[in-house]
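Components:
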Amino acid sequence: EVQLVESGGGLVQPGGSLRLSCTASGFTLSSYWISWVRQAPGKGLEWVANIKQDGSEKYYVDSVKGRFTISRDNAKKSLYLQMDSLRAEDTAVYYCARESYCGVNCFSGLFDVWGQGTLVAVSS
Amino acid sequence: DIQMTQSPSSLSASVGDRVTITCRASQSISSYLNWYQQKPGKAPNLLIYTASSLQSGVPSRFSGSGSGTNFSLTISSLQPEDFATYYCQQRYSMLWTFGQGTKVEVK
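Structure:
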């Protein structure tokens, strides 16, 4: 079964750090761009960051640039989101999502597989 | 960044109704528009990609249309399992952006 499973969420104080993980199964992780998408409580979806198949390209939404770092370890079938300098407005469910394959040097932006999400709460 | 605006934000409908949701992009995105369905407590699920292509396994009562800046998602005959929130998303230009969502509620 094609699957993504997130972990690492929890309660953290403002200014603190958290590292989310996303583990893939049922497909070859190294063939796909992967994104992180978040959803604040009762709000809509917001794309946060993504990373190319080999980790050579990474993109971030402006609100997390310089604070969040996306990375991957294809050998471990895992993606990561290091979140530093957390703010209350970062409180959300964080999903990892696979971007459908479109070739070696192209952007897909088509999220065809999603994890179940992990909740990050930033509060004192 | 490209802004995506959906309308309405919510709507009330009955089983069997025809429902249409619209999505407007702040600039032309050709046909690079996706639609997702999300039920409470669940991850989003891809319904339509490239404006009008039905994702495998999605019922044919769902359809999409449009190009450029104006798009729509239509449910031809609303079923009980279709009460959910729907999001459009552009994949024309990195950084990917979503509409604010349209909640389809029971009338």
